[in-house]
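Final report, closing paragraph on structural work. Over the funding period we assembled a curated collection of sequence-structure pairs, and we close with a single example.
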Amino acid sequence: MESLALNELFGAAYAGRRVLVTGHTGFKGSWLCLWLTALGARVTGLALAPDTEPAHWNLLGLADVQDLHVDLRDAAAVQQTLLRAQPEIIFHLAAQPLVRRSYREPAVTFDTNVLGLVNLLEAVRATPSVRALVNATTDKVYLEQPTFGGYREDHPLGGHDPYSTSKACAELVTECYRKSFFVDKGPRVATARAGNVIGGGDWSQDRLVPDLVRAASTGSTLQIRNPEAVRPWQHVLEPLSGYLRLGELLLAGKAVEGPWNFGPSADATLPVRALVSLMQSHWPALHSAHQPGPHPHEAATLQLDSSRAKEHLGWRAVWDAETTLQSTIQWYRDHYEHHHLRSRENLQAYVDSARSAGLEWTS
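Its predicted structure, as stored:
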């Protein structure tokens, strides 16, 4: 990673820091570990083993990350991990993150996403080294109703499916612990709401882009459930830059506790059919067809208002829809057609774009 000039965004904010990433073997977690190690952080990961083959975490081969396979539902093991790692900041990404799986396994979803979070927060209470915690939830925590300009952080929480509801509960649990235990002492705590994240290295089931990629790699046609559903698509590095910015400010003692939205540029909030069409323009082997219902309930429209993060954190989305999709498809094509891993190139390209857009932070 020596060739990546990434400290222009965050200075020395993470250099030498002891950082714990839960869910580090997952899609977002593996990208976050790549970025943190490039920034010079001393990273410990807490997660289950990857549940896909291939897996981005395994492809990266990040030998500098302490890879601990721990189940969030095991309270004693979680506390032992924190006492061993003595982290200064925690990025909590571990979850059961799939909507359709949550319908099949609601108890596992709530056990992991709510009680697993409680186990983590209890372990934080017993670990004085922790100065900051960023809990990554989702854009699906909001009560589903029409909005003008997208959901804002003060919009009511809700959730229809077990996954969305579990993450709304996680928001309430986080705020409860912040007010009950962390106001006078303990870490500064914030939540980060983002969703419909795409990018190279995601092979999760029942997600549009990975499902399309699998179909293209096998020459099959993907059946699309809801082609008119509107979602805020964004490259995985966009919300991660927000998480890192939020963590930087929490460590610096700034008053940024509470919830934050990290959504894409305006042109990247698109219907599923439009996203598929753009992807096909970059990879003609992608084929899809509409699969008639009935299907489990999914919101017709999701859109985030990220103006608060722009005003108070100095954060904003960098890549438009075209750049996001081009980067994503090129990653997968290079993987399948040339056996080349583009993650480091993608990270450097994103940082270069962020610098060009004027996003250079020090505190």
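The chain has 13 helices and 13 strands. The chain has one domain: 14-356. We thank the funder for supporting this effort.
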